[in-house]
Amino acid sequence: MKDLTPKEVVAELDRYIVGQESAKKSVAIAMRNRWRRQQLSDEMREEIVPNNIILIGTTGVGKTEIARRLANLANAPFIKVEASKFTEVGYVGRDVESIIRDLMDISVSIVERKKEGEVALEAEDLANERLLDILFPGNGSGDSHEGKSDLAERQKRTREKLRVKLLDGKFEDRVVEVDVADETMPMMQVFGPIGLEEMGMNLQDIFGSSIPKKRSRRRTTVSEARRILAVEEASKLIDHEEVLRDAKSRIENSGIVFLDEIDKIVGNSSGTGPDVSREGVQRDILPIVEGSNVITKYGIVKTDHVLFIAAGAFHVSKPSDMIPELQGRFPIRVEMDTLTTDDFIQILTHPKTALIKQYAALLETEGVKLKFTKSAVRAVAEIATEVNDATENIGARRLHTVMTTLLEDILFEKSGEEPEKISITKEMVNSKLREIVKDHDLSRYIL
Ligand SMILES: Nc1ncnc2c1ncn2[C@@H]1O[C@H](COP(=O)(O)OP(=O)(O)OP(=O)(O)O)[C@@H](O)[C@H]1O
Ligand SMILES: [Mg+2]
Question: Helix, strand or coil for residue 260?
């Protein structure tokens, strides 16, 4: 994957997210700035801090959705966490440093996957050689002693023929026995200062490969054995030190943390009772956002240049209720737009996996071709807006409830008896939903 320009990022996000132009722009710029920073001299690079972002908007307007799509795009280690899951150090629950530890796990596995891909062909060759050894012992790679060179020569030719057959897939279903390292290593707990055991440190990590892994014998088919052996060979070919260095540098230079539900750790101003611990979480987050060293089982990770994107509805509290230090560390604030009826129409129809396309696909499995007329789509969007206005505004989530109610009967009745076409019209939408919309108490429960 290459590094996308801000315009390309926005274009990609456009495929899934309707509206929210300023939010898309901000995240696109932030992402590109990481790349730009990478191009600079060391001195300059150290000085440039990421411009952390807060996305502010009521529920269901696409905050989490932007994060989800960004995660797919970002050629960078990315983690999304709910701020409300964390508790102050010393309390029961997760401490904020675990975010960085998890991010390191993610980064390591990204780099491992990449390296495995690079050595895949070589690993498969080696696995095939080992399969030949297992399938035809004795036709080994021939320690050709002098005088026996004739025999060695013959064995070499036989092996060559067998290799061709093996590669041809002639032995795939034969059952062989392979010696494999157990994938689950014995976990040994280290009791140490607070947090160590929580970090999931085990002796294997500390002493690395100096502890021999337990091996066991498995009977399996050639094709499965090849897969197992290739994984093992790949692991031997990979320089694990380099993986860790690479994974660490990816986080330190381009890691992204998405802190969802940040408003849940912001108490409203009064500042007594449970707020104290929320404020504690905010204080715990500070050093990580600011830049600190976090101990992970792979070594120390610096967070100075990790980009933080926070998001929150801020219904009850306001961003200004956050402790001032934290506010200052999120210099960019983006207000998400409230979604309009026209946005809803777009959300229903436009994204690659838009809601209407989802239902059409579901019903397609029953042989039903589901269509919506233009005016029917508009009617659904209008009803969603009306209900949002009359009861709670839950943004685009309202479309889900409206659609399930609308399609309930069809989803219940159709079960592939015979192929048919169903076209949903405006009249059908209204007759199914109007009564419910009119009655606010009823729509509160149903829509
Ligand atoms: N702008 C949008 N474009 C496309 N789909 C959207 C948009 N906004 C919301 N949705 C749809 O609505 C659903 C909820 O959106 P999302 O999870 O992003 O809400 P949120 O802003 O994170 O809300 P909350 O504050 O409750 O977490 C998603 O499934 C998404 O498909
Ligand atoms: Mg959300």
Answer: strand
User: Is there a contact between 69 and 10 (Cβ–Cβ < 8 Å)?
Assistant: no
Least confident of 72-76, 167-171, 243-247, 432-436: 72-76
Instruction: Name the strand (E) or helix (H) holding 296.
Output: strand 293-296
Question: In sequence order, what E strands does 336-402 have?
Answer: 368-372
Alpha helices, H only, 21-148:
21-38, 42-47, 63-73, 97-135
Q: What are the angstrom distances between the C-alpha of 67 and each of 51, 253, 371?
A: 16, 19, 31
- Taking residue 315's Cβ as centre, other Cβ atoms within 10 Å add up to 10
Per the CB < 8 A criterion, the answer to whether 181 and 235 are in contact is: no
Query: What count of residues does the chain have?
Result: 447
What is the distance between the alpha carbons of residues 317 and 327, in angstroms, rounded to a whole number?
A: 13
> Considering just the CA atoms, what is the radius of gyration of the chain in Å?
29
Q: What is the pLDDT of residue 434?
A: 85
- Sequence-distant (≥ 6) Cβ neighbours of residue 313 within 8 angstroms: 56, 57, 58, 59, 63, 263
User: What are the phi and psi torsion angles at 177 (to 5°)?
Assistant: -110, 130
pLDDT for 229-242, tens place per residue?
A: 999 999 899 999 99
Nearest C-alpha neighbor of 214 from the set 188, 249, 250 = 188
Q: Tell me the H-state helices in 238-340.
A: 240-254, 275-290, 324-328
Q: φ and ψ at 102, to 5 degrees?
A: -65, -40
Question: Which residue's CA lies nearest to atom 18 of ligand 1?
Answer: 62
**How many whole angstroms separate alpha carbon 52 and alpha carbon 306?**
9
Q: Which residue has the tokens 């320009």?
A: 5
Ligand 1 pocket (Cβ < 6 Å) reads 17-20, 57, 59-65, 313, 347, 351, 395-397
> In this predicted model, what pLDDT tens digit does every residue of 171-180 receive, in sequence order?
888 888 888 7
- Whole-structure pTM value: 0.77
* Of residues 362, 285, 282, the one with CA closest to residue 321: 282
Looking at the chain, the whole-number percentage of residues with pLDDT higher than 90 is 47
Mutate to test the pocket of ligand 1, among 14, 64, 82, 336 (most ligand atoms within 8 A of CB): 64
| Among protein residues, the one whose CA lies closest to atom 26 of ligand 1 | 59
Considering only residues 145 and 243, tell me which one the structure prediction assigns the higher pLDDT: 243
Q: Hey, which residues does 78 pair with through a beta bridge?
A: 256
pLDDT-derived band at 190 (thresholds 50, 70, 90) equals very low
Measure Cα distances from 154 to 131, 138, 157 in Å.
19, 12, 5
